[in-house]
Design goal:
Low-confidence stretches of chain A: none
Largest sheet of chain A: 6 strands, antiparallel
Order of helices and strands of chain A: HHHEEHHHEEHEEEHE
Oligomer: homodimer
Structural class of chain A: alpha+beta
Strand order of the largest sheet of chain A: 3-8-4-5-6-7
Strand content of chain A: 15-25%
Number of helices of chain A: 8
Distance between the termini of chain A: 42 Å
Chain lengths: ~220, ~220
DNA sequence: AATTTTTTTTAGATTTGTCTAAATTTTATT
DNA sequence: AATAAAATTTAGACAAATCTAAAAAAAATT
């Protein structure tokens, strides 16, 4: 019922990699966790005996129902702390992830439930990712890619596709964050780049790659 | 500069045991940490190479200046979290300690400084213990034992001498906590017990032992 | 279908923190 | 001062989590 920090990190990483239906490979998980494939094999044997993964040697793995439930619990803790850091402690949007990586492993059930209550039962973290409730359910944010907006439509950023430092750095420089209202002015067919405007500031152009990593709600 | 959870627990325990001028013994520390004397010896060798303790085999030890600074940092984190849990998340007074034991090991400097700011720079935790500031300084609460009050004097509980579950349980049953206003009515010379009254409730008698573990401000 | 390449697992070592049992040192007692 | 008792350290073992290097299995290529 209670897992080590290391086990929790493996469970969380498998959850992120497995998505809807994919099986996860040893190498992929090793890359994700910046560890060695041999270490992954070792840990998977342990997680298998604990019935948290369905693992067949040489043929990849996915989380068991129990493993998935555990993963959602860890993600719940992570995202609630991110919300707390951002909303209450006024951390910058791109600083919360690293600190939450540590806080998420404090596994008091009561702590997390009371924290959630204190925060007012938020449904999304500062990156726009949904926060699972105490039973593991979460909203699937109805989202559109910015690049799919039509010219002169306006939307609010509700999510970014991932939290790589490179992306966060660029967003920070562009002054784009969750909640930012963006108006799409033109689309350039040549390279897919789009011209946007934020508030009354001067319009500017962002790459197709960036535009398709920003999810918005109209 | 950054220590493991285990190292931090040793440092904190040594700090509590060494008080003003005492040298700490291997057995005392083993008892405090619920571990074996041999384990303590092992860890002390490590802490010595890291220059956190002054340790002479067979002759006890105390924290070095660097070790003391580290201890105060850990205690600062612990007490700020206790304050947060009690004040913001509405934990019961006697529940905060255990959760804070885990939170205290999340060592982001920025997290703690921002938490302190958010909490309004509290000077005492819910047990009445002073919270070190970011440089390690803390107030030494000017305190009197309840048992030293004279009849009909009144005081406010500002600290309890320790946080043993047994004491906290008794205080909880007696409905006594930090901030409770107590009027001392009589002292019984035979066994040192004292009759007290809280607000307008019926007076009752507490043991000398309990009375001398409650620190009050007049 | 055979061979090469890639992926994954195994075998054995390492680090951290713990333990038990035995040896050593210090302290207390006669 | 000698001896007994208590405290402490050493020696050697173990579990968790990691690693490197080698072996084995699967996938890709010829």
């Amino acid at each position: 019922m209670n897992y080590s920090v290391s086990e929790e990190n493996y469970i969380k990483a498998i959850f992120h990699l497995q998505g809807e239906g994919e099986t996860v490979t040893t190498n992929a998980l090793a890359a994700e966790l910046k560890t060695r494939p041999a270490s992954v094999t070792d840990m998977l044997k342990k997680l298998k005996t604990k019935k948290l993964v369905n693992y067949q040697p040489y043929h990849g793995f996915r989380l068991s129902p129990e493993g998935k439930k555990t993963a959602l619990g860890i993600i719940r803790r992570h995202r609630l702390w991110e919300y707390f850091l951002s909303e209450k402690l006024k951390f910058e949007w791109n600083e919360v992830h690293e600190v939450a990586e540590h806080l998420e492993h404090v596994s008091s059930r009561k702590l997390i439930d009371k924290l959630e209550e204190y925060l007012g039962y938020p449904k999304f973290d500062p990156h726009g990712d949904p926060i699972p409730d105490s039973s593991g359910k979460m909203e699937s944010s109805p989202q559109t890619m910015l690049s799919q907006l039509e010219p002169t439509q306006t939307g609010v950023v509700i999510q970014v596709s991932n939290q790589s430092p490179a992306l966060l750095e660029l967003l920070s420089a562009r002054k784009i964050g969750i909640g930012t209202k963006i108006e799409l002015l033109r689309k350039f067919a040549f390279d897919g780049s789009v011209e946007i405007r934020i508030g009354r500031a001067a319009p500017f152009i962002i790459s197709e790659q960036l535009a398709s990593n920003l999810f918005i709600r109209k």
